[in-house]
Amino acid sequence: MAGKGKIRLVSFKHTQFIEMGKDLFDFRVTEFLQKIGEESIIATHPMSYQHIDMLTRETIIDYGLIVIYREVEG
Question: DSSP class of residue 72?
Answer without folding.
Answer: P
